[in-house]
Design brief:
- The protein has two domains: 44 residues; 115 residues, Orthogonal Bundle (DNA polymerase, domain 1).
- By secondary structure, it is an all-alpha fold.
Length: 169
């Protein structure tokens, strides 16, 4: 049972698009001192900051490109763009409730399309990793401690995505 009487409109969003909308709302709330950031909104902002790896334009291009594939409808294209699957099992899990199964070639087409956009994001991460590697090569000092504290959030993200294991080796 829903508290709403009827659904007026439905629109799919990628995580990157949701991030840009939530950033705008967060800026409006920050400008007004009397308005607080509710817990749910803060958690939503935290979620999109963690999982949005593409820009809104890139994610929409990915959705459009996925829509051109044969067995990818709009809803599935948005799911794939949000999840950015890396292997066949992840693609199969998206299609688990569908009435049909995908062939290996269709799954590979989806993965190749997604990989093009993930590679773009990982190239920018590699540039940041190079900067971070240079930063970590300085002798210990107050400057290094300050800069490392600024990049602490990024180091945690990179560790969680296993980038540091390869870049700092």
């Amino acid at each position: 049972m829903s508290i709403f009487k009827e659904k007026l409109d439905e629109e799919y969003l990628t995580v990157a698009e949701a991030k840009s909308i939530l950033e705008r709302i967060e800026a409006e709330r920050a400008a007004d001192e009397e308005r607080e950031l509710r817990y749910e909104l803060a958690r939503a902002i935290q979620h999109v900051n963690r999982f949005a790896t593409l820009d809104p334009e890139e994610s929409q291009e990915l959705v459009d490109e996925l829509n051109t594939l044969e067995k990818v409808n709009e809803e599935t294209a948005y799911k794939l763009a949000n999840l950015l699957p890396e292997d066949r099992t992840e693609v199969r899990s998206v299609y688990a409730q569908q009435r049909y199964s995908l062939s290996t070639e269709e799954i590979d087409d989806i993965l190749n399309t997604v990989a093009q956009y993930v590679w773009i994001a990982s190239e920018s991460v590699c540039v940041l990793l190079g900067s971070l590697k240079l930063l970590l090569s300085f002798p210990p000092s107050q400057l290094r401690a300050r800069l490392a504290s600024r990049y602490r959030w990024w180091i945690g993200w990179a560790r969680s995505h296993h980038f540091l294991k390869y870049a700092l080796a």
